[in-house]
Amino acid sequence: MELARDEYATHTAYDELLDRELKLRPAAQPLFDYLNSLNDGELAKRQQAVDATIMAMGITFTVYSEAGNIDRVWPFDPIPRVMGRKEWESIQAGLKQRLRALNLFINDLYNEQRIIKDGVFPAEVLEESANFRPQCVGITPRFGVWAHICGTDLVRDKDGTVYVLEDNLRVPSGVSYMLENRQIMKRIFPEVFRTTNILPVDDYPTQLYQMLASLSPREDEHPVIAVLTPGIYNSAYFEHSYLAQQMGAYLVEGSDMVVGADDIVYMKTITGLQRVDVIYRRIDDAFLDPEVFNPDSVLGTPGLMRAWRKGNVGIANAPGAGVADDKVVYTFVPQIIRYYLNEEPILANVPSYLCMYADQREHVLANLDKLVVKPANESGGYGMLIGPRATPEEREQFAELIRKDPRNYMAQPTLEISTAPTLVDGKLAPRHLDLRPFVLQSDKLYATTGGLTRVAMRKGSLVVNSSQGGGSKDTWVVEDAA
Amino acid sequence: MMLARVAENLYWMARNLERAENTARLINSTTYVLLDLPHGATFGWKNLAEIAGLDDLFARIYPEANEESIMRFLIEDERNPSSIFACVRYARENTRTLREVLPAAMWERINSLYLYVRQHAQAACSNRRERYMVLNEVIQQRHAIVGLFSGTMPHDDVYQLIKLGRNIERADMTTRILDLHSAISFPNDSVVREALVERIWMSTLDSLSAYQTYRRLVSMHVRSNDAIRFLLQDMRFPRSVSHCLSEMEAGFRLMPKSQQLQQLTALLRLKIAQHDSDDLDAVALHEYLDLLQMQLGEIHDALTQNYFHAWQGAVPQTIQTQEEAGFAQQ
User: Fold this and answer.
1) Which of A413, A437, A458 is the last residue of a domain?
2) Which helix (H) or strand (E) covers residue A268, if one does?
3) Label partner for B135 (CA 20 to 30 A): which of A11, A41, A162, B219?
4) Nearest CB to B100: which of A222, A232, A251?
């Protein structure tokens, strides 16, 4: 396999598979032994097989701007990102620690608010939080868990440190691509799975099912589990359908369900009504229940909140869990971990400046050309400023936004996020990537083996979001050499 | 246990695919007939839209009924929800919402049928030779889809609903293809006329892939009474109305809460068996076929009410125990 040496020659970021001298890292050795054993042209042939497989499997990612064209294939790169098991297990422990603390935090916010009274978390941040739901105050869901499913975005900086970039606690997506990417790899590179010890990822649907089942209010009965989707025009519809199919759950839209005066959720079946025990909802809080939230929503089901408050249905993630999915709250996570768990954080947070504090805001405004500025409540890479790449006019516009609504902005130094060799015009060129593992919590904790690796397919680009032209790779966690 | 919406989508997916196939058959039959028409006989293009039950819609969209406008209307016009392209597109949209209950290959097949029709519909409208090839390909691809159903799907409620949709649509379309004869005004010369009638019935049988079977099972001669009886009553032929009804009866028997639907279907089949279709003139045949279409429509309405709206009225309105609410158990 040929490296794009010209690109690597000027390369300064950390590469996941190659060290500074462009020697293979130990975990990547078996992969490259295998790639080098392929004949010329074989890889290109398999790349074509990938494209055909993706088409046939119907893996698509919708982008909102492409109205009317609701199938768009998401680029897949056949060169996996590889990690050693030891490193991964330490990351896994960090992910679980983080979600455990975040759930204690959310439950505290909706109940006693000890963390505010103890002066660790500022009341004004909560007061201005867009995702705090007063309708949830006083509730403690089963196991005290609000965020049952978390997609945590990780990146690696120049010096090799892994940072948490954000915790997606609302309706994180992407796990189906993690699963399908592995299926694709097994189809096109079956040999390497025989010779290399690659840890499996496919127990996720079972783990998800068990987690959801544990939320059922009717403990003696086989639970009826529904995946609530906004419908086929949603960008993640494929995933909703895929997960429902994998778990043997019902894929429902809001109008398929009805809440009776008995505060029980039913779905409309061909023989009448059937009680629903657990809802894995893939729509935002605001659209969940027009009785309580956005009254114009046609995506949700009127009465869901009544049923949930009474404990007649489990909802994952719980309404209101998004309060901790906020880029300002993010900056407090290390303190949150120390406060609730009395442990040191295992995973690092990116150093962050909160524009709500005058001194930090001044620092941000003075260094806009060096920082990435993010709005607190946007996801998908929308509405952010990458200082070093912005024009002076764009920076000035953003400074204005920050001054107008400082609580809504935070800034971080631009990380030089890591790369991995990616197939570009027949050569392996470095492309930036991140990693989104998925963490589950109910009565127990689970984190995926690896996760979804997203890669910016354009040279030098740092934007990996699928909605902004990124692609994905399979993620291998392999046994460390003895 | 199945969601009412999923059931409805399955049923309509099957109906739309069957409708697309049969519209292709109807058009192919028409094209044969046209080639066979001698001088003095004329074909009423307007009647073709009427046979399909779409004359009002057609008149609203097109100023004039001729071969080209009718073909556009029936093959590619999305404003006609029963055009081949519209049916295939609906079926594809339905399938998209059904991926978790259908075999994975189903989406690929239906998607490729959709892509084929989208690409070739226009050529099929303007050119008779192309038309025949394209429509045949539509029929072939549709057969592959039915093969996939029957070869890979468990025979559960999903399967039964697809089968029900397919058979009710097929029965309806067979009556419409039979009705094609009402679109032809025959010449006065009785010898020419008789030969023509036979040729046209041969085309009709052929368009339903029934010609060989008819000759083997019924007669070497094609007489209108025999052909009508064959396509309405013969239980052995899978596109005859009676056969479709008996398939539906069998499907209903395997579905929950289907007593009334079984009876309704059986009753219609018996009525057809007892109906004397000898010596029906064109007008009487047309009226009889209309009546059958209405009765199939009644079965459709009953099925819709029974399965897709079963939940209505069952929602607990005041606080009561679950037993009183009478919700369905799994």
Assistant:
1) A413
2) strand A265-269
3) B219
4) A251
Phi and psi dihedrals of B47, rounded to 5?
-65, -25
**pLDDT tens-digit readout, A312-346:** 999 999 999 999 998 889 999 999 999 999 999 99
Asked whether residue A262 is assigned to any structural domain, the reply reads no
Give the residue, A270 or A1, on which the prediction is more confident: A270
- State pTM to two decimals: 0.86
- What's the token pair of residue B14? 């099957």
Domain that holds residue A405: 351-413
Residue among B310, B317, B320 minimizing CB distance to A272: B310
In this structure, are residues A18 and A24 in contact, taking their beta carbons and an 8 Å threshold?
Answer: yes
* Residue A300, in any domain of the structure: no
Count Cβ–Cβ pairs < 8 Å, chain A vs chain B: 98
Domain residue limits, chain B:
12-309
Contact in structure between B241 and B171 (CB atoms under 8 Å): yes
Cα dist from A239 to A185, A320, B19, B232, whole Å? 19, 23, 31, 46
Q: Indicate the residue of A222, A262, A273 with minimum beta-carbon distance to B314.
A: A273
Nearest CA in chain A to B100: A245
Residue B245 has pLDDT above 80, yes or no: yes
The predicted pLDDT at position B202 comes to 87
Phi-psi region of A303 (alpha: psi -120 to 50; beta: other; left: phi over 0): left
Angstrom distance (rounded) from CA A87 to CA A395: 38
Q: CA-CA distance, A477 to A200, in Å (whole number)?
A: 8
pLDDT tens per residue across span A389-437: 889 999 999 899 999 988 888 899 988 899 999 998 888 999 999 999 9
CB atoms < 10 A from the CB of A66, how many?
Answer: 10
In degrees, rounded to 5, the angle at the alpha carbon of residue B17 between the alpha carbons of residues B14 and B20 is 145
Helix axes B224-233, B241-253, angle to 10 degrees: 10
Does B311 sit within 8 Å of A268, measured CB to CB? yes
Which residues of chain B have a CB within 8 Å of the CB of A242?
A: 99-100
* Residues A372 and A464 both lie in one domain: no
Strand partners, A373: A385, A411
Nearest Cα of chain B lies from the Cα of A56 at a distance, in angstroms, of: 6
Q: Do A271 and B257 touch (CB under 8 A)?
A: yes
CATH number of the domain to which A389 belongs: 3.30.1490.270
Give contacts of B 109-128 with A, CB under 8 A.
Answer: 111
- Given an 8 Å threshold on Cβ–Cβ distance, is A270 in contact with B100? no
Nearest to A263 by CA among B83, B299, B316, B294: B316
Note whether residue A277 is domain-resident.
Answer: no
Question: Residue A260 is nearest to which of B104, B310, B316, comparing CB atoms?
Answer: B316
To the nearest whole number, what is the mean pLDDT of chain B? 89
Looking at the 3D structure of chain A, how many domains does it have?
2
Chain B (18-37) residues lying within 8 Å, Cβ to Cβ, of chain A: none
Helix (H/G/I), strand (E/B), else coil: B198: helix
CA distances to B80, B244, B261 from B253, rounded to whole Å, are 34, 14, 9
Residue of A nearest to B313 (CA): A272
User: Is residue A239 in some structural domain?
Assistant: no
